[in-house]
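Protein Entry — a single chain follows
Next Lines — sequence and tokenised fold
***
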Amino acid sequence: MKCPACDIKMEVLIEGIFQCLNCKKIIKAKSTEAEKMEKEESLIGNLTDGEWFHKNVSLNKSYEIAESGIILSKTTNRLFAVLKCHSAYLKIEKYVRLSWWKGYQHAGMFKIYDKYVLNNFIRSLEKIDETYDEIWSWSGSFGKKEPKTKQELEKEKNLEIIKYRIIENRI
């Protein structure tokens, strides 16, 4: 392990703890899980080699070969990515594939072969993005959840009472 300050190889004090010979800085080594999480986080939004998709998610090389891809969203059991692929039989048959996986099993996809369709798709996503407001988030829930004031709680309570009375009078 190298010292982050001096960039000099560190001496092992005990397993997992290192000391720099130059500046005497003592650092605990990152666990392999933390390094793996950092590496996976660095994949999101960056161009990734197609081989990663063949190894880590269910892509079958006998049908198609992924040249590269970008992971758009990744959680513990879901993955959404855009891949640049070509047919396993014809290398000139290239397309853009939008795929999603659930539990690392393929859950769905669609392929775009035509450049004009891809441009229309990108334009439509940009228009949708322009119409979104600051409150809505892409994860499907409202982003700004501030605690409600007493006035807001009282107002909601009164509205519920009014709704109940309206329903009661209809019956």
Q: What stands out?
A: The mean pLDDT is 82.
